[in-house]
Amino acid sequence: MNRFLTRLVSVREIPVLLALFIVLVVTGIANPQFVSASGAQDIFLGVAVIATLSVGMTFVITMRHIDLSVGSTAGFTAYMIGKMSAHHHGLVTSLLVALGIGLIVGAANGFLVAYLRLPSLVVTLASLWIVRGVFDQIAGGDTVTDNQVPVALGYLGRHSFANIPYIFIIAFVLILVASFFMRSVRPARDLYAMGSNPPASELAGIPVARRTFFAFLASGAVSGLGGAILLARFHSADSNSGLGLELNVIAACVVGGVAIAGGVGTPYGALIGALLLQSITQALGALGVSQFWQLAVNGTLLISAISLDRYLTLRVKPTRILRVKS
Amino acid sequence: MKRISFNWDKGILVFLVLTTIVGSFITPYFANASNFSFVIQDIGEFMLMAIPMTFLIISGEIDLSIGSSLCLSSAALGYSFRHGIPFWLCIIIALLVGIACGLINGILVTKFGLQSLAVTIGTLALYRGLCFVLLGNQPVNQMPLSYTNLGSNSIPHTFLPYVTILIVIFGAIGWTTLHYTRLGRWTFAVGINVEAAKFSGIPVARLKLALFAMTGLMAGVAGIVYTFRFASASPDGATGYELSVIASVLFGGVSIAGGVGTMWGVLAAVLELGVIRSVLQLTNVSANTLLVVSGGLLLLSVAIPRAIELSRNRRKLVSLDSKS
Description:
The structure holds 2 protein chains of 2 kinds. Chain A has 14 helices and 4 strands.
C-alpha cells in the first residue's frame, strides 16, 4: 500500500489534479452555481489559449530551455489573420501566413540557440521585442474588430459541442497528440534526456542541436497557429494582443509539473496546471473575493507548486540523484 | 572567455561615444544640457536596478520580480501616505517593503533550494497582485510637493536631476564592491562554479540571500524615485521593467550563465540604451523601431562574443548548459 502511494505521488500530475479537484469541490459547496455548465464553459474558454501555447512551451522547457517569444508571436498572428480576412483573403491563406510567421520566429530562435549555442533566455527575450516591434509598426493603433474576424474562427470561439467550447476541444486534441509524441515517439522522447543531462545525451548520440532546433520550430509553429485561437477567443486583436502571455504560459507549465530545470513534465500536466490556475481565478470570483486578489493568489499558487514539487522530490524519492546546478 | 567579454565591454563604451557623436550631428536637439538631463532622468530607475541585478546574474541567479518589487514598494508608499502616515516614514516603509520582497525571493531560492527563474515568475505575479490589493484601481496622487519636486527638478545651479546623486553613490558602491572587495570576488566565484565555491568555504546561501535582499532594497529605492518622478503611486506602474533591466545587464557584457561581467560595462550599457532612445525619439523614429533595435542589440551582445570565440577557438565547443 505504501509503495502504491509512493508511486502515485511520484506521478507529478497527481498533486495538481488533486488540487484542481479540491478547488472545484470546495467552491462548488460554497457556491453551487459555480459547478454548472456555464461555469465549466468559462473555465474551458479561459484556458484554451494558454493550453495551446503550453504545448510548444513544454517541448522547450523539457530540454532545459525557455521560449519568451510566444506571446508576441501569437498576438502578431492573431492580428494578421484578422487583417487578412478583412482584406478578403481566405481563412486557409491567413492560417498559412500565421503558420509561416510562427515558423520564421521559431526557426530564428532555434538556429541561434541550437547552432550558435546562445542562451535561449536572451535569444527569445530579444525575439519577443523584435516581433513586438514589427507587430506594433504594422498594427499601429489599428484594431481588428469583431466583424473582421473570419467567420469560421468567430463560430469556433462562440459555440460549444456538448457545453465544451470548440477552441478548447482543439487545444485538447493538440495536447493529446503532443502527449503521445512525448511519450512514445523517439525524437520527442529525446527531449527528456537532453533536459535531464545535456552532456550525457550528446555522448549518447542524440543529435542535440537538431532536436533543439526542431523543438523551437515547433514552439514557433504552435504560437503562430495559437494566434488563431487567441483571435477566436477574444473576437478582436490590436497591438496589445498577447502582451505578457508568455509568463502565464510558463506559469501553467510549471504548476503542471514541467520543471524549469528540464527533464520532466508532460503536455497534459501543463493543461492541468492551466486549468488549476484558471479555476482558482474563477473560484475567487464565485466566492466573492475581490478581483484584486486574483493575481496575488496565482503567484502564491505558483510558488507553492514548485515548493511542493521540490519537497516531494526530496522526501518521496530519496534515491533520485539530485542534480547540481552547473 | 575573460578576454572576449573584456572586448565587449570596451565595445559598449566605443558604441556609446559613437552614438553620442552621431546623435549630435543628426539632430540639433540632442547635445544640450536639458536633453542630457532628460536622458538621465529617463534611465534613473534602470540604472539603480541594473546595479544589483549585475551581482545577481554574475552569481548565476536571476530576479524577474524586480519590476513588481519596484511597484510594490511604490504602492506601499502610496498606501501608507493615503492612511495619513508622515511622508518620511512612508519612504522608510517603502524601502523595508523592497527589502522584504528581495528576502522572500532569497529565502525561497537559498533555503528551499528552488530555481530563481521559476520562483521570481511566481513572485512577479504575487507582488504585482499585492499592489492591486493595496491600492485597488485608484492611483495615489497629491503627494507633498517638497518631495515630488525632487523627482522633477534639477540640483540647484546644475542641469543634473536629483537622481544623479543616487546613481553616482550606488554606482560607486556597486563598482567597488563588485571589483575590489571580497564580496565581489565571492560573487564571481559562485557564478563560475558553485560547488567549488562551497568547498572553498564561501557561504554560498548567505551570499545569495544578501544579493537578493540587496536587489529588493534597490528596487525599493527605484520605487521611491519612480513615485517622485510621476508624483503618483499606481498599481500597474513599471510593468515589464524586469525584462528591460535584465536585457541592459546582458547588453553590458554580463553572461547569463554567470561568472562574467563588469560593473562599468553595465552602467555604460544602460546609458547607451538611454542615449539611443533619446536619439531615436528626437529624430521622430517610432517607438516600435526602438523595440526592434533593443532586441537586435541584445542579440548582438551575445552573438558577437560567441562569433569571436568560435573564430579564435576551433576546438569543438562543449557549452551545453546554456539556459541558466
